[in-house]
Amino acid sequence: MSGRPRQPIDLIVAKGKKHLTKDEIERRRAEELQVPDDAIAPPAYLSKRQREEFRRIADTLVSLKIMKNLDVDALAAYIVERDEWLATIKQLHRKGVRDDIAAFDKLSRIEERYRKQMRASASDLGLSITSRGKLVMPTEETPIPHDNKFAKFSAVTADG
Question: H or E segment at 147?
Answer without folding.
Answer: none
